[in-house]
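Human: If only I could read backbone structure tokens as easily as an amino acid sequence. Underneath my words sits a plain record pairing an amino acid chain with its backbone structure tokens. Take your time, and here it is.
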Amino acid sequence: MMKEYFNDIFALSGRIIKHNLRSVDTMITVVIMPIMIMLGMVYIFGGSIQLQGVQSQDYVDYIMPGILLITIASSSAYTSLRINLDKTRGMFERFKSMPIAKSAVLGGHVVASVIFMLISCAAVLLVGLLIGFRSDASFLEWLMIILFLVLFAFMLTWLSVPFGLMAGGVEGASAFSYVILLLMFVSSAFVPVEGMSKIVRIFAENQPMTPIIQTLRNLFNAQPLTSDAWVSLIWIAAILIISYIAGMKVYRKV
């Protein structure tokens, strides 16, 4: 039974991955755009920002964790969009009439999304290496980095599910990703929070993206993990569980 269930998931995920690879718009948004943001921050703003307190390491090393999370966030918008398209085009009704596990339909979207997110992150890391990104992380720390990225990808993917199911059209389906991107910019992704105004700093320090970014940064730099790691896991677990419950509840009503 479990083998058939996972076969259904991977068969359906293959369909989504093929759609993404054939979509030029998707490739531009989820791969090229994060790379352009990284290049812009490093070569346009990098020199000025380093003067404001990031002298201890190259700026590309500093922003890499945030860029990777932005890459995943950009991909999550297309997860929501693909789910909404399947709903509006009647694909869910068609799948429900087939001899497959009903939950495997959403599972296929989630698995495809996470795989595509990790491929996009690998492409961004490769470009980062070409422009000077370096990491002191050990093999174990790289495994932990990958684990955090996978967990973050699952979290945002499941967060995109209820939005994609509830949205009336493709425009609204991906709107939630703008909130995620805003949280990225109001965090320690590009500048230390210590230099922000008091109100903005308090918000930046107490929203989920900052501890996740700080944890990844510590792992890349082979620094001891702090309480940020536990805070990150709590945020990820809470959002993932709530999103999964909400997504499955909405899916049953579709």
Remarks:
- The radius of gyration is 19 Å.
- The chain has a mean pLDDT of 84.
